Amino acid sequence: MYISTRSIGYNHLSRKYAEFVGISVQGVAYSPDSVADYTLMLMLMAVRNTKSIIRRTDTHDYRLNDGRGKELRDLTVGVVGTGRIGAAVVDRLRGFGSRILAYDNRPKAASYYVSLDELLQRSDIVTLHTPLNADTHHLLDRQRIEQMKRGAFIINTGRGSLLDTDALIPALEGGKLGGAALDVLEGEEGIFYADCRDKPIESQSLLRLQQLPNVIISPHTAYYTDHALRDTVENTIRNCLGFESRKQLWTG
């Protein structure tokens, strides 16, 4: 049996178990630009108070808000994880004139690398692009969130469990953090990609986050572009053809 996956919620242990029961698994690569573009959009929406602006406009309140926006060129952005997507985010941030700090266990992009502690302490925005594994689960926990600058923003288009939701909510409610923009969330399975308009949401953390005026939630959609889906289909076909060729060699 063969499975090709974009790896939503898929991890190293799952792959090992699949191999153990005789299932061959291949990851499917797609353009990093889809997620990188979306990440920059979320940054801009977060620092310009877009959620509150749109909510007021929808009720025909067109007054200026007391909370003024920020410009990316005035901010330091910490990029955690500089693989294909993280590196693409760094490239885009250079165009905005931001100061960029990077953290990665295996530095590879042309960036200014610092320790994770220093990145958290100096960054106005922290954006997460590292894989989820045992070492990165709750990478931003209560202690690390406390290290962040007061009023800083968190952007997560990586994996929900990189961020400890139970630590995030009080930091947002208490004013420690200026806001968050989350395309992924702990416990999203069974909620994201489903029509939940006529059924109760069991995730109390999701409901609370959506109530906060400084939090933007989207349903794991950063990758969802024409280009990325075309890449996914093409690379899935290549993987299948490659698997069939190898299978013929094994049985030939």
Tell me about this structure.
This protein has 252 residues and is of the alpha/beta class. 40% of the residues lie in helices and 14% in strands. It has nine helices and eight strands. Helix 2 (33-47) packs across helix 4. The chain is globular. The mean pLDDT is 89.
Helix content: 40-55%
Distance between the termini: 18 Å
Mean pLDDT score: 89
**Which strand order do you get reading across the main beta sheet?**
4-3-5-6-7-8
Q: Any low-confidence stretches, pLDDT <50, length ≥5?
A: none
Descriptive terms for the model:
8 strands; 252 residues; two-stranded parallel sheet; alpha/beta; 40% helix; six-stranded parallel β-sheet
Topology:
Elements (H helix, E strand, L loop, with lengths): L1 E4 L6 H9 L3 E4 L5 H15 L2 H9 L17 E5 L3 H13 L2 E5 L12 H7 L2 E4 L13 H6 L4 E5 L8 H9 L3 E6 L21 H8 L3 E3 L8 H26 L1
Parallel strand pairs: 1-2, 3-4, 3-5, 5-6, 6-7, 7-8
In short:
This protein has helices at 12-20, 33-47, 50-58, 84-96, 116-122, 142-147, 165-173, 204-211, 226-251; strands spanning 2-5, 24-27, 76-80, 99-103, 125-128, 152-156, 177-182, 215-217.
